[in-house]
Amino acid sequence: MTSLLDVQNLSVRFEVKRQSLFGKKSYLYAVDDISFQIERGKTLAIVGESGSGKTTAALACARLLDAHQGKITLDGENILAKQGEALRQIRSKVQFIFQDPYSSLNPRMRAEAIVAEPLNSLSHQTSKQKREVVDQLFDAVGLRPEQKRLFPHQFSGGQRQRIGIARALATKPELIICDEPVSALDVAVQAQILNLLRKLQREFNLTYLFISHDLGVVQHMSDNIAVMYMGKVVEYADRQSLFQTPSHPYTNALLSAVPGIDPGQRRQRVLLPGDPPDPVNLPAGCRFASRCPIAVDQCFTDQPELKARQSGDHLIACHLQ
Amino acid sequence: MSALLEVNHLSIELTTRDGVAPVIDDLSFDLNAGETLSFVGESGCGKSMTALALMGLLPENISRVSAGSITFAGETLNDASEDRLRQIRGNDISMIFQEPMTSLNPVFTIGEQIAEVLRTHQKLSRRAAWKQSVELLNAVRIPQPESRAADYPFQMSGGQRQRAMIAMALACEPKLLIADEPTTALDVTVQAQIFDLLKDLRRQTGTAIILITHDMGAVAEMAERMIVMYAGRKAEYGSVQQIIEKPRHPYTQGLIACVPHITADLSNERQDLLEVPGIVPSLKDFGKDQCLFASRCEHRSSRCTQQRPEEHQFSSDHSAECWHAVEYQE
Amino acid sequence: MKATNTDSHDQHNTNAIKARSPLAEAAGMFFNNYAAVVALLILILVFLMAVFGPILYQTDPFEMVWAPFSPPGEEGFLFGTDYLGRDLLAMIINGSRVSLLIGLSAALVSIVIGVTVGALAGFYRGFVEEVLMRITEFFQVLPTLLFSMVLVALFGASLPMITFAIGIVSWTAVARITRSEFLRIREQEYVMASRASGVSNTRLMFAVILPNALPPIIVQSALMVGSAILFEAGLSFLGLTDPNIVSWGQIIGSNRQYILDAGYTVTIPGAAIFITVLAISLVGDGLNDALNPKLRQR
Fold first, then answer.
1. Angstrom distance (rounded) from CA B114 to CA B80
2. Does the pTM exceed 0.90?
3. Which of B170, B307, B314, C137 is most enclosed, with most CB atoms within 10 A?
4. Please, what's the b/e burial string for C116-132 (b: 16 or more CB within 10 A of its CB; e: otherwise)?
C-alpha cells in the first residue's frame, strides 16, 4: 500500500541576521533532514516541544513555507515542484487547521464567508452549490445554520475552532494538517474538538498530520508518531510500540514529565537538566546529548542515524539503543 | 492555631457593558503555612480574579469586593490601605504569572529587577541586594548565576525566565506564593523542572502556595487540597486525593474524564472522550439563583434550574455544591 | 454523536446576540462620544451649506453690493461687507464649497497614493519595500509648503493643480501607516489561512489585509481632510489660488491689510476654517476611539 503523503529528507532553514556586515550568513535549520509517510485514512502525529520544528514541518507540507531541500509527494505528485496555478490547485488537496482560533479567522468576515473562502478561490461551483456545501459543513461540524451570519468575535473558542475545521473541509481535501488544534482551548472544549476530528475522519476517510506537544492528545488521536527534537526526528513508531516501549531517552523523559492524575500509574521521573542547545550553533553530535542522562562520549561527536533497532518499524536515532 | 489565610464569603462584582456580574460568588476557604491549595477551572471561572483579590490588585473602577473578607496572618486585607497593601505585596504575598516574558520588565536585567524588590521591601543596600539576587538565581537553579544576573529577560529561555520570576517572587521569603498558571506557557520537560523547584522551595521555606491551573495533572502533582471553580462559584472542594478518586460534582468528573491521557487504553478500539458539552455561561448569567452548570449537566432536574445548590459535606475535607451529588454517585 | 450536540445553553447564548458587524459596533461606540457627535453635526451643517447655500442665498460673492467695510449685522448683511463692498456671507458660503472640495479630493489623492505604496511595500517586503520606502522618505523630507508652491507656480493655480499639489506632499503618512499595518496583519494566522485556501495575492492584499488595516487609515484620512483645508487656506492666503474662485483662505489673504480697521473680515473666515478643521479633528478622534479594537471589549 502506498502512502498518501511521503516526505523525504525535508529541510527548512531560516536565515539568521548576520552579526556584522562582513559576517558569514548563518542559517537556523528548523527542520533538518526528516522523512515520514502517512497512509490514507490514518493519522501521523508529530510531537515535540517548542523549537522542535514540528510546526515548521507542517507549514512546509502545506507549502505555506518554502522548503530548502527534500521531496514531498502527495498522492503521487511532487508538491514542492508546483508553482502558480498548479500550486493553488494543490491547496484544495491539503488544508490546514490552525492553532489559535482567535487569530486564524478574519475578524471582518462572517462565518459563512470564512467557510466559503476556499470554495470561492479553488472550486468552480455555482454560488448555489457553494451555499449548499457551506450548509452541509456547518451541520457536519456541529454549528447551527443561523450562526452563519455571525462574525468570529461572537463565537466561543471551541465554536471558532469548529469554523476553522469547516473551512478546512470545504474543498474535500485529502490531507488535513492540524497544527495544535486544541492547545488554545479549555480542557472541556478540547474533548469536544478531538471527538469531532475523529468523527470527521471516520466519516470522510480523512488523513491527518497532527501536530501537538500534548502526549495525551497524541496518544488519543494518532496511529503513528514521530517525536521531534531540535529539527530532527528522534523516534518514529506506531502508537502502541511508542507508548509501550519508548526507546529514545528524550521520549522517555517527555513521557515521564507529563503529570499524571493517577498516582498508581505515575512513571519514574526522568528529569532533564539544562536547556536545549542554541539552534543556530548546533553541536556536532546528537542534539540531545547535552541534556541526556545516559550520554556517552560518542554522543557528543557522532550524529546518530534514525534506524530500526529492535523490531522492524520502530525507528530510533540513538547510539545506545 | 488560626490559618495563614482565611477567606470568608468573598464576593467580587465586575461591571461590564451588560451590567454588574458577581465574578466571585460567596467563596470561602483557608490555607495553612506550608500547604498548597489549587484552584481549578476553565477560563472565566474566577480563579484569576481570586488571585488578584488576594493581592489587592483588582482592576479599579470596574470591580470591587462586594461582600466577605480576606484575612491574612490575622490582618483583614480587604479594608487595608493602599500603602499597607503595597508593603504586603511582594513581601508577604507574592505572585508568579503565566507569561514570564510580559511580566518581566524588558529594559532591566534580571538581577536588577530582583534587587529592586529586595531594596524596596528589605531596605538592603545596592551591593547586598545584588549579592542576594545572585543567590536567589542560584537557588532556582539557573546555571552561572553571577553572569546570568546581568542578562536581560529576552536573553533567557522561557523556562529560565519563569525561574527568574520565581526567584523574584521568593526574594522576600513570602508567606504566601500565588502561582497563576505558572507552567502553561512552558514545555512539559521544563514544567517538570518548575514543579520540582516549587516543591523544594516549599519544603525549605514553609511558604504556602496557591496554584491556579486548568491542568488536573499539575494539581495531582503539586497540591494537597483543591477547589474546583465554575462560573465564579465553588463547585467542589476537598483533598486532591479524595476528589481524584471520587469526584462528586459532575463538572469535576467531566474535567477529569475529558482529558486524554498517555496511560489510557492503547488498543485500536479507541473510545470517544467523555465530553462536557456546551460552553461556560456568559457573565450575564452569573449570580442567578440556580445551578450554573445545569445547562451542561446530564443529571439536571427542575430543582437545578430553580435554586442554587447548597454545599453538601461528604467528609470534613470534601464538599460539593450540587443537588444530586449524593444520589447518583452510588 | 455527542460532538455535534451544541446544547441548549449554548444556543441560548448565541441566539441572544444579533449578527452585529464590526462596523455596526464601531458606529455604536462613535455615537457614545458626545464631542464627536456634535462635531459630526457641525460638519454636516458645513457640508449642507456648501451644497445648498449658494442656491438658497443667491447673492454673487464677486458683486459689489454695498459700501465697503460695512460691519456685520448692519444694513441687512449678516457678516457685513469686505474692502470692495462684497457680501461676506455670500463669500463664506461659496468659499465653503472650494474648501471642502479641495480638502476631500486632496485627501483622496493622498490616500490612493499612500495606500498603494504602503500596501505594496508591506505585502511584498524585500526589494520592493526598500525602493518604495526610500521614495516615501524622499517625499517626506521635502519642505511641503515650498514644494507645493513651486508646483502651483509652475503649472498654474487651477483647482485640480492645487488639489494635486496638496495631495502629493501629504501621502507619506498614509503610506507609512498602511505599510506598518500590512506588516502586522500579514503575519496574522487568518492571512495564512486565506493563503492556504488558495486566495490570490491581489485578493490577499485588497480583500483580506486591507479591510483589517482600514481603521487607522480612515482616521488618518479624516485628519488629512482637515490639514488639506488648512493647506489650501495657506496657499490662497499667499495668493496662489484661482482668482475666479472664492475660498476661505483667499478671503483672509485679500483682506489682510485691513485687519486693524475691519477685523471681522479676517476673523469670520478664520473662524469658519477653525470650526471646520476642529470638527474634522474631533470626528477623527471619535473614529479613532471607535475603530481601535484595543479599547473595545471582546
1. 26
2. no
3. B170
4. bbbbbbbbeeeeebeeb
Q: Which of C270, C278, C274 is nearest to C88 (CA)?
A: C270
pLDDT digits (tens, 9 = 90+) for C151-187: 888 888 888 888 998 898 889 999 999 999 999 998 8
Full DSSP string of A46-87: EE--TTSSHHHHHHHHTTSS--SEEEEEETTEEGGG--HHHH
Query: What part of C 1-40 touches B (C-beta under 8 Å)?
Result: 2-3, 5-10, 12-13
> Least CB-CB distance to B278: which of C3, C10, C297?
C10
What ipTM describes this predicted complex? 0.83
Backbone phi, then psi, for B314, in 5-degree steps?
Answer: -95, -35
> Scanning every residue of chain C, which has its alpha carbon at the shortest distance from the alpha carbon of A192?
C3
DSSP string, C6-68: --HHHHHHHHSS----HHHHHHHHHTT-HHHHHHHHHHHHHHHHHHHHHHHS---TTSB-S-T
Q: How far apart are CA B280 and CA C10, in angstroms?
A: 8
Tens digits of per-residue pLDDT, A99-148?
888 889 998 889 999 999 999 888 888 889 999 999 999 999 999 888 89
The CA distance from A14 to A67, in Å, is 10
Q: Where are the beta strands (DSSP E) in B120-186?
A: 176-180
Is there a contact between B260 and A217 if contact means CB atoms under 8 Å apart? Answer: yes
Is the CB of C13 less than 8 angstroms away from the CB of B281?
yes
By Cβ distance, the residue of B191, B259, B279 closest to A187 is B259
Q: How far is CA A109 from CA B226, C193, C194, in A?
A: 42, 13, 12
Three-state SS at A235: strand
The b-or-e profile of A19-40 (16+ CB within 10 A means b, else e) is eeeeeeeeebbbbbbbbbbbee
Using CA atoms, how far apart are residues A72 and A31, in angstroms rounded to an integer? Answer: 14
CB-closest option in A108, A155, A192 to C22? A108
Is the Cβ–Cβ distance between A290 and A274 less than 8 Å?
Answer: yes
* pLDDT at residue C295 tops 50: no
Is some CB atom of chain B closer than 8 A to the CB atom of A217?
A: yes
> For residues A230 and A290, what is the distance between their CA atoms, to the nearest angstrom?
12
The pLDDT tens digits of the residues spanning C113-157 come to: 999 999 999 998 888 899 999 999 999 888 888 888 888 888 888
Query: C-alpha distances in angstroms, A217 versus A180, B230, C280?
Result: 10, 24, 55
Q: Return the C-alpha cell found at A232.
A: 530532527
| 8 Å CB contact of B296 and C7 | yes
Burial group, residue A123, by CB count within 10 angstroms (0-12, 13-18, 19+): middle
Helix axes B110-122, B126-139, angle to 10 degrees: 120
Contact A260 B143 (CB under 8 A): no
Domain C22-296 belongs in CATH node 3.40.50.300: no
Q: Output the 3-class SS for A99-149.
A: CCCCCCCCCCCCHHHHHHHHHHHHCCCCHHHHHHHHHHHHHHCCCCHHHHH
Query: What's the CA gap between C76 and C70, in Å, rounded?
Result: 10
C-alpha Rg value of chain C to the nearest Å = 24
List, in order of start, the domains of chain A with CATH numbers: 3-93+173-316 (3.40.50.300)
How far apart, in whole angstroms, are the C-alpha atoms of residue A128 and residue B163?
Answer: 57
Query: Which residue from B184, A13, B281, A35 is spatially nearest to C11, judged by alpha carbons?
Result: B281
CB C147 within 8 Å of CB C217: no
Q: Mark yes or no for CB contact B189/A262 under 8 Å.
A: no
- Supply φ then ψ for residue A221, to 5 degrees: -95, -25
**Any B CB within 8 A of A257 CB:** yes
| Owner of C-alpha cell 514542492 | A80
Sheet with A26-38: strands ordered across:
A26-38, A5-16, A69-74, A77-78
